Amino acid sequence: MSSRPIKVLIAKPGLDGHDVGAKIVCRALMQAGMEVIYTGLRLSPAAIAATAAEEDPDVIGLSILSGAPLPLAEKLVDALQEHGVENALLVVGGNIPVQDHDAMRGLGVDGIFPTGTPLEEIVEFIDQEVTR
Amino acid sequence: MTASDPDRVEWESGLDIKPLYGPEDVRSSGGDAGIGEPGEYPFTRGIHPLMYRSRPFTMRQYSGFGTAAETHERFQFLIKQGNTGLNVAFDLPTQCGLDSDDPMAEGEVGRVGMAVDSLADMEEAFADIPLNEITVSLTINGAAVPILAMYFAMARKRGYDLSTLRGNAQNDILKEFIGRGTWIFPVEPSMRLVGDTIEFCADNAPRYSPVSVCGYHIRESGANPAQEMAYGLAIAKAYLDHSLERGLDVNSVARGLTFNFDVFGNLWEQVCKFRAGRRLWAKTVKEQYGATDPKAMQMRMIAGGGGGGLTIEQPDNNIVRGAYYALASALSGTQTMALCSFDEAYTIPTEHAAKLSLRTMQLLIHEIGMSDTVDPLAGSYFIETMTNEMESEIVRLMKKLDDEGGIVANVADGRVQADVSLSAFQRERKIASGEVKKVGVNIHRDSEETQLAVEMHPYRQEEANKQIERLRGVRDDRDEHAVATALDQLRQAAADGQNVMPAAIDAVETYATVGEICGALRDVFGSYSEPIRF
Predict the structure, then answer these.
(1) Considering only alpha carbons, which residue of chain B is nearest residue A37?
(2) Which residues form the domain of A12?
(3) pLDDT tens-digit profile of B427-485?
(4) B228-279 residue pLDDT tens
(5) Which residues have C-beta within 8 Å of that of residue A26, sequence separation ≥ 6?
(6) What's the sign of the alpha-carbon dihedral B56, B57, B62, B68?
(7) Whole-Å CA distances, B374 to A5, B379, B509
(8) Which pTM does this prediction carry?
């Protein structure tokens, strides 16, 4: 293991203002020793991708509770490619309907954590998947 | 009960509960002098002498209907059914001050409520509706200035005197910074804009309530019940202070404030929260602010909702939870009730789910006896003791906030947000450890996870396209010179510290859009930048 902590960018794309879950996950990751950057509400996919390009995180986590996560995830994946962000682990949490999970994975989403997922599960997943 | 001490019972607000209460507990917690009579100061037992015996609580479900045309159709249906109040939900672009053709609006136009771009949408939604006979509730916060301006301009155009209009705007921007998130401008100018609407209504539309103070969303963001009430009252005081600095009369401003609170969790804790909060608000307005009009001291409220208590797991349980939350609201003496629907943890409620919520509230009135008598829990040693203790706890929290610089400064630097999100995190941890029990989540789980066959709320791209076309049509037909002039005057009023409402009304009359008006105000005030603090 490297001495550098795992760096996670948590972002909330779109207009929905439900940020309770995103902030809870931020705290859980920080308690697990990770470095966490939280972008705040209402950012465009381009703005999130620009932050990702600048910060070079190991993990990008999207919190989406609008009930329509797919179009936002698609736009974000495109924006990340445009900004040359390719190696980060991409995880999505929030209100993610079961019927969208396959399409999400097809987009390159590595982990899906619907509302109610135990925090430990998210921490463990990131710990295992991030290889440095 | 906590894991560390199985004999201990503690409420979420941190108050210890004894196995048995008697007269001595009431005495030692502050006595029974504050109970009083219903309809009389300090209104512990409710703000009306006969409460639900004279008029049951109003049932008002929050809902939205895509375009102005659909909203209009729905309004007419509701009025035909005998409804005298309309509750308008706006879509997220409108709430965030964006036009329907803004790139950020994509996928959200008309989704969670009506899309409003210009006065034309407001005119269509309210066409032929008798504005002096119905009350209209507008759930709008960050974009309250253009939306209120449109509502007033539309009413004037139709020949109504603004003084005949009744209803309320949510317009509680401080809570948007803590939870819900439809802020647009920085904290200080946002406060000033709320002040502008309060002043404008006091002068022109005295029967219209310009602000509904929301503890609700703060509770939903993680606050415990005592914090919810403490932050709510602190916010209400901040609007009062701001208005008094502008030279407004405390009686007229306090009469225009209404409240919106959340109900989930322990039933008794909710009841005591409301009885204590009602008493404390009356005392505050009378003793600290010197109000003389009893109506100014009354906490008029909508209570219910309870979204934060609902679970994804075993979603049918949410129907039962909703019934208990409604019972708690009724026992708390609310004026208006709204209930989240059982599928709301997943999606925008279906009609079936929304109807079940309405029926739940109707059952309480017609079958369960909730309107038999006033404040039926009054005089219980337990309830009166804990109402006293809850009041002391709320006072303690409010004093702490004042000592730390007050609610406005604490919201501006993100300390309130950090405190509330820490509470949410701690609650999550307690649910994970089993210290806080949630049926179907950490106790009485099904061996096989039940997945609700959820009917997802579809996004209708064609309706969104129609709205965008309509907006372009409005832009094509209007006098661009008049729009530019009106927006310049709005910028001027904002920069000069004048009340922006008259200039905003002039601007909406030229069919300037929500996005353009918020853009003009942003030119002067700048945008809010979220303080990220943990």
Answers:
(1) B532
(2) 7-127
(3) 999 999 999 999 999 999 987 766 555 666 778 899 999 999 999 999 999 999 999 99
(4) 999 999 999 999 999 999 999 999 999 999 999 999 999 999 999 999 999 9
(5) A10, A36, A38, B534
(6) positive
(7) 60, 12, 47
(8) 0.95
For every residue of B342-363, DSSP letters joined together read: TTTTTSSPPHHHHHHHHHHHHH
Q: Quick check: is B528 in a domain?
A: no
Cβ atoms of residues B198 and B206 within 8 Å: no
All residues of chain B having their beta carbon less than 8 Å from the beta carbon of residue A118 are 432
Peptide bond into B42 cis (omega under 30): yes
Annotated catalytic residues of A are: 16, 18
Q: What is the CATH number of the domain that holds A67?
A: 3.40.50.280
| CA–CA min distance A75, chain B (Å) | 11
Residue B460 lies in a domain: no
Does residue A104 fall inside a structural domain? yes
Give me the CATH number covering residue B40.
3.20.20.240
A38–B contact, CB cutoff 8 A: yes
Closest to B340 in 3D by CA, of B63, B13, B58? B63
Scan for tokens 């200035």, then name that residue.
Answer: B145
Structural domain of B353: 9-433
Residue A116 forms contact with B (CB below 8 Å): yes
Instruction: List the 271-330 stretch of B: residues with Cβ below 8 A of A.
Output: 311-313
Q: Are A61 and A9 contacting, i.e. CB atoms less than 8 angstroms apart?
A: yes
Q: How many domains does chain A have?
A: 1
- Cα B275 to Cα A96, A103, B301, B306, distances in angstroms: 39, 50, 12, 18
| Strand order across the beta sheet in which B301-305 lies | B58-59, B336-339, B301-305, B257-262, B211-214
* Cβ–Cβ pairs < 8 A, chains A and B: 87
The secondary structure of chain B in percent helix, strand, coil, rounded to multiples of 5, reads: 50, 10, 40
Type of residue numbered B216: Y
ipTM score for this prediction: 0.93
Contacts of A71 in chain B (CB under 8 A): 106-107
Residue B196 contacts A, CB cutoff 8 Å: no
* Tokens representing residue B174 in the block: 């401080």
- Interhelix angle B501-509/B187-204, nearest 10 degrees: 80
* In a domain? residue A1: no
CA distance B95 to B141: 7
- The domain tally of chain B equals 1
**B interface mutation test: which of A31, A39, A42 has the most B CBs within 10 A?**
A42
Q: Is residue A132 part of a domain?
A: no
**pLDDT at position B450, please?**
60
| Cα B221 from chain centre | 13
With beta carbons less than 8 A apart as the criterion, state whether B125 and B68 touch. yes
Q: Tell me the Ramachandran region of residue B93: left when phi exceeds 0, alpha when psi lies from -120 to 50, beta otherwise.
A: alpha
| Residue B341 burial (CB count, 10 A) | 26
- Give yes or no for residue B84 having a pLDDT over 60: yes
B143-193: per-residue pLDDT in tens? 999 999 999 999 999 999 999 999 999 999 999 999 999 999 999 999 999
Q: Is residue A105 part of a domain?
A: yes
Residue B167 pairs in a beta bridge with B136, B208
